[in-house]
Predict the 3D structure of the following.
Amino acid sequence: MSTLLTLIKKYDILRGSKTDLFFFMKIFLDTAETDVISKYFSTGLVDGVTTNPTLIRKSGRNPEDVYQEIKDMGVQDISMEVVGSDLEMYDEGKRLYEKFGDVCTVKVPCTREGLSVCKALSDQGVKVNVTLIFCAAQAVLAAKAGATYVSPFVGRLDDQSVAGLEVVRSISELYRIHGMRTQVLSASIRSVQRAIRSWYNGAEICTMPPKVFDQMYDHILTDKGLEIFDNDWKQVQQ
Ligand code: E4P
């Protein structure tokens, strides 16, 4: 029995879906630049992609061409944001899901309209990412609306002198206590430190700009240590 309790605690079995048990600390790329996504997805370390209207605008491309290209790379989870009235968001979300299938996660804002669309789509088995989350109360409503993911914006909270990571921690803790299945997708990440601390504070997923992902590989002591090892190895061979 105690082993079972340890397992439940360790893997949070009461909370998550079983398929997610051994896939903690997912990395999503927060970009619509397909050449960059392709480069980093080929590492095998990237689990998904999030886009938003700003990122799509920056890409200068048709959104659906972007989504199709990302899907063709084999990315299994792509957040596609919808805008407009509740009816417009619902219709667009449904259409995107029918076109792109299970890789499509419909992204809606945390508004009254967005959450009613979240409920309607989630009830039909469509994954929904509720975005623009800035407090635990919003995350509670999103979870009750059946959201697969909530996206608290860490960087934008920090910009307002509110500790974004504290919001991540509150949401994760609330979900854990009450056994909610909604996953915390930490967004608006601007540094490796914020990504690592997001996971530490209970987020299942971090979506980050490619630059931050790239920086996760680096440590000055690794470079220094490698230099020493390389030099010593040359001497061994001599
Ligand atoms: C992701 O879902 C968000 O749209 C994104 O992380 C926002 O990041 P920003 O605050 O850097 O624009």
In short: The beta strands are 26-30, 48-50, 78-81, 104-109, 127-133, 149-152, 183-186, 205-208.
